[in-house]
């Protein structure tokens, strides 16, 4: 008894299946890898913003301090916060109001694997505020 193939209707179906599965696996790997990079950049942006805000909030207005009023020197705080960001190779926005220094940092992340499906990157933004207080 000899078995004869039924026809060519299934020819190449495994190749197509493997191509689809491989493409899906690459996209999934891209999502995992690039999403991890975005989460890391998000954490880094918040960290830089917080540290720059704290550095700026240390620049107190000495005239107000002598009279017992805690107030941030706006120009000095802005310069200090921007200098901190510049030392770390990023730019940001600084807002100073009374005892508060607010810093916003935006970082752009270029995708590595998701470029295969036409995605270029993402921008993450971190904003933190530091408050100058009296006492230790």
Task: Please write out the topology.
Layout: H1 13-57, H2 62-66, H3 74-87, E1 92-97, E2 100-110, E3 121-131
Antiparallel strand pairs: 1-2, 2-3
Characterization of this structure:
- With 136 residues, this protein is an alpha+beta fold.
- It has one domain.
- The chain is 47% helix and 21% strand.
- The protein has a 3-stranded antiparallel beta sheet, with helices on one face.
- The longest helix is centred in the first third of the chain and has 45 residues.
- The model has no long low-confidence stretch (mean pLDDT 88).
Kindly, what is the distance between the CA atoms of the first and last residues, rounded to a whole number of angstroms?
Answer: 95 Å
Biggest pleated-sheet summary: 3 strands, antiparallel
Q: Helicity level, as a percent range?
A: 40-55%
Name the strands of the widest sheet in spatial order.
Answer: 1-2-3
**Mean pLDDT level:** 88
Sum up the overall morphology in one term.
rod-shaped
- Return the domain count: 1
What's the number of extended β-strand segments?
3
Helical segment count: 3
User: What is the SS-derived class?
Assistant: alpha+beta
Query: Element order, helices and strands?
Result: HHHEEE
Low-confidence stretches: none
Proportion of beta-strand residues: 15-25%
Task: Supply Rg.
Answer: 27 Å
């Amino acid at each position: 008894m000899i078995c004869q193939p039924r026809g060519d209707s299934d020819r190449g179906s495994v190749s197509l299946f493997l191509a689809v599965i491989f493409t899906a696996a690459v996209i999934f790997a891209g999502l995992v890898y690039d999403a991890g990079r975005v989460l890391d950049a998000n954490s880094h942006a918040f960290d830089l913003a917080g540290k720059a805000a704290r550095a700026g909030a240390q620049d107190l207005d000495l005239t107000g301090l002598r009279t017992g009023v805690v107030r941030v020197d706006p120009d000095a705080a802005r310069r200090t916060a921007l200098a901190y960001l510049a030392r770390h190779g990023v730019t940001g926005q600084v807002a100073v109001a009374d005892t508060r220094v607010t810093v916003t940092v935006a970082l752009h992340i270029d995708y590595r694997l998701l470029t295969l499906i036409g995605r270029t990157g993402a921008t993450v933004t971190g904003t933190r505020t530091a408050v100058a207080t009296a006492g230790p």
